Amino acid sequence: MFSNSSSNNVLSLETLDLSTLQMYPAFVFGTLTYLIIVFCNLLVLLTIAVSKTLHKPMFILLFNLPISDIVGATAFFPQLLLSIATQNRLISYSACIIQAFLIHVYGTANLLILTAMAYDRYTAICRPLRYNAIMNTHILIKMIISVWFINFSIMLTLFMLLVRFKICRTHIVDLYCNNPSLMKLTCEDTRVNNYYGIMASFVLQGGPLSIIIYTYAQILRTCLMTNHADARQKAIQTCGTHLVVFLILQINTAFTLISHRINGVSPFIRRAFGVSILVFPPILDPLIYGLKTKEFKQCMIMFLKRNVDFTK
Fold first, then answer.
1. CB-based contact 99:79 (threshold 8 Å)
2. For the chain, what are the domain ranges?
3. Angle at which helices 229-259 and 207-225 cross, to 10°
4. Are 84 and 23 in contact (CB under 8 A)?
5. By C-alpha distance, which of 208, 248, 2 is closest to 101?
6. Do 158 and 108 meet the contact criterion of CB atoms below 8 Å apart?
7. pLDDT tens profile 138-180
8. CA atoms of 123 and 216, how far apart (whole Å)
9. Could you give the CA distance from residue 10 to residue 144 in angstroms, rounded to a whole number?
10. Which of 14-23, 59-68, 259-268 has the lowest mean pLDDT?
């Protein structure tokens, strides 16, 4: 996958600007953040896996979200913590490519999974009588396979186009590796990559955004027309939190990608938005889709009690 001219290069990531006094608190905070992300997302995974009452389309789609979140966090945090501990911001070209690929897979998966979940909520609220027929096992499997197939096919193509270049620079302008920062290392003609990147961004962000706008407009319309205040409040609350998570990911991703193409954007702001993509969604997803969902919360408490009793 890697050309011989590039794979042996050692790259330098943007400095963290940490003093000796700041290094230890930063390492502890980063470690705790990573452990919390992994623990909470694994808890969601295990709760859904062992609770038969959660083996429904909504929760089966949700099952894919913590997988994606753990991939993104694992691609980012261990390398960051290692660089804090060693005060070394060097990374090999091959490791940088792998990190960038996994981070892009994570971001794309989250957008597509949240879109599939929005369609599920639209079907449940706007077409409840046909929900079981529409969201049957066959359709559900096809949706999940499509999410990951679209994700991997687009990302593999993107990075296959990238690794064909020889690099003439070694400084990554971000705190972690990503496609735009890696593209800045080459001095060759990158027009094909730019065109493909714009097309991929349009498909992966414009497509989900269009579906989200349509489904939530229909959900809002249905909620306003219903005579049941409790059902209306529950639907709006559930979909509102879903929309918040989607918009955080969508806006941060769009800003980070666009900022690489605009020289006037502050590098500090670009890096802050870039890191927030990898920190906030993996923390918010388990809280919003776990603790805010009564059925899931009950199953999670039962799962924890069972395991606590078993260890006694």
1. yes
2. 4-311
3. 160
4. yes
5. 2
6. no
7. 999 999 999 999 999 999 999 999 999 999 999 999 999 999 9
8. 11
9. 37
10. 259-268
User: What tens digit of pLDDT does each residue of 107-143 get?
Assistant: 999 999 999 998 998 998 889 889 999 999 999 999 9
Distance of CA 99 to the CA centre of its chain: 14
Token pair of 289 as six digits:
């889709």
How many Å separate Cα 225 from the centre of its chain? 34
C-alpha span between 204 and 151 (Å, rounded): 9
Maximum C-alpha span of the chain: 67
Tokens representing 208 are 């989900």
pLDDT tens digits along 200-239:
989 998 899 899 889 888 888 887 777 666 666 666 666 7
Q: Which residues, 6+ apart, have CB-to-CB distance to 106 below 8 Å?
A: 68, 69, 71, 72, 75, 278
Residue 173 burial (10 A CB sphere; 0-12, 13-18, 19+): middle
Q: How far apart, in whole angstroms, are the C-alpha atoms of residue 175 and residue 94?
A: 17
Report the DSSP pairing between strands 90-92 and 10-12. Answer: antiparallel
Q: How far apart are CA 198 and CA 257, in angstroms?
A: 10
CA distances to 71, 109, 110, 237, 271 from 103, rounded to whole Å, are 8, 10, 11, 30, 14
Short-list 62, 74, 68, CA closest to 151? 68
The topology (CATH level 3) of 4-311 is Rhopdopsin 7-helix transmembrane proteins (1.20.1070)
Q: Where are the alpha helices (DSSP H) in 127-228?
A: 131-134, 137-163, 179-183, 191-201, 207-225
